[in-house]
Amino acid sequence: METYAFPVSGRVCARILTIAMAAAFGAGLGGAQAQGLQTVGKGEGQVDIVAWPGYIERGETDKSYDWVTEFEKKTGCKVNVKTAGTSDEMVALMNEGGFDLVTASGDASLRLIAGKRVQEVNVNLIPSYSKVDPRLQNAPWHTVEGKHYGVPYQWGYNVLAYNTKVFKKPPTSWSVVFEEQKLPDGKSNKGRVQAFDGPIYIADAALYLKSAKPALGIKDPYQLNEDQYKAALDLLRKQRKLVSRYWHDAMIQVDDFKNEGVVASSSWGFQVNLLQSEKRPIGSIVPKEGATGWADTTMLHVNAKNPNCAYMWMEHSINAKTQGDLAAWFGSVPSVPAACKGNALLGDKGCETNGYNEFDRISFWKTPTAKCADHPEKGCVPYYRWVSDYIAVLGGR
C-alpha cells in the first residue's frame, strides 16, 4: 500500500448512545416528506450542517485543507458545523432539529428517512450529480422507492489492520480477531486484538460467519433471522475474551498499535495511513470474507431553514477539487471518480490506496429492519435489538 501523510483528523467515534429512535424500525421503511424545491434561489446567508469530525474543513488545522472558505465567498452562505461522533448521535441531532444538512452513514440514513427527518432531494438542482460514481447514484442507503434522499459524499471500508512484524505475510481471514489462535510469532492473539465499539459491528461477525459457517445461510449481514443473529452474538461473546479494547476513537487506536501491543483489529484507512506515514510496521488487507464499510450521504432536513444554501453546498460538496482534498485528508474514497486524478493532495494513486477497487467486496452499513427481503415470512432482527444486545456483549452478558 502506498502511504500518504494525513493531518490529525478522521472519524472519531464516541461511545454507544442508547437512543430510543431505533424502535421505529420494527415495521420497515416509509417515505419521508418531500418539500419539492424547484429552483435554487438566493442564499439565506448560512447553512447548518451536522458532520463527522474532519469532514468539513476550513484550513484551521492545516491551511492546505480548506473547502469551506471559497464556498462562503462565492455564495455568501456561512457554513456552521456541529460535529457528531456516532450515527446514533447524528440521528438524535436531526430529530431535535435546527440543522439543514447531515453527512449520514448507511446505518443512519434509512433511519432518518423512515423517521421522516429528511426530505427528498431534487437532483435536477444539483448539476454535478451526473458525475457521481454510478455505483453510488442509486444506492439503497439513500434511495427509497426510486426517490433520492441525499447526495453521496465519501465512502470507505473497514480493513483488517495488522502488525507486519507479527504477520510476515498478511493474514487472509478475519478469524485472527474472532477466534482464539496462535499467531505467526508463536503467541496467542488473546489480549492483542481489538473490535469496533458500535452495534453495527454485529454485521462484521455475521460477514465472517457467512463464510466460516455457510450452513447458517447468511446472505446479507444486515438481514439476520433469529438463528443467524444468535450465532453472531455467540461469536462476539467468545471474541470478548480476546479483545484488549473496543475502539471508538481513531487516535486512541493509533496509540494502541504503537504502544499497547495491539497486533490486529478492524480499522479505517485513516489510522493505517497515519501509522504508515510515521514508518510504523502496519499493513492492511480486505480478507477473503470481504469487509463491511461506510458510504456517507449529505441529506437535507425535512424542515431545513436554509434550503437554498443547502442545495448550493450539496453541489459544492461533489466538485472534483473538494472530493479529492477530502479523500486525502480523511483516507476515504471520493464519490466522484474524476477526483481521483490530478489532485496534488490525494495523488494519482490515492483512490486505489484508499480502496476504490474494493467496492464490490464491501458490505456497506445499512440499518437492520424487521421487514427484510432475505426472510420475508418471519422477518429479521431490527436495529433496536442490535443496540441493546451489543451493549450486553460489551458488559459480558
Strand content: 15-25%
The helix/strand series, from N terminus to C terminus, equals EHEHEHHEEEEHEHHEHEHEEHHEHEH
Query: What is the CA–CA distance across the termini?
Result: 39 Å
Shape designation: globular
Would you mind describing this structure in some detail?
By secondary structure, the protein is α/β, with parallel strands linked by helices. The protein is 30% helix and 16% strand. The strands form three sheets. Strands 1, 2, 3, 6, 12, 13 and 14 form a seven-stranded mixed sheet that branches. A five-stranded mixed sheet has the order 9-8-10-7-11, with helices on one face. Strand 1, helix 1 and strand 2 form a beta-alpha-beta unit. Helix 2 runs parallel beside helix 3. The N terminus is likely disordered.
Task: Summarize the helices and strands and which ones pair or pack.
Layout: E1 46-51, H1 69-75, E2 78-83, H2 87-96, E3 101-104, H3 106-114, H4 134-137, E4 143-144, E5 147-148, E6 151-157, E7 159-163, H5 175-178, E8 193-196, H6 202-212, H7 226-240, E9 243-247, H8 250-259, E10 264-267, H9 269-277, E11 282-285, E12 291-300, H10 307-317, H11 320-330, E13 333-334, H12 350-354, E14 362-364, H13 383-394
Parallel strand pairs: 1-2, 1-3, 8-9, 8-10, 12-14
Antiparallel strand pairs: 3-12, 4-5, 6-12, 6-13, 7-10, 7-11
Helix pairs in contact: 2-3, 6-7, 7-13, 8-9
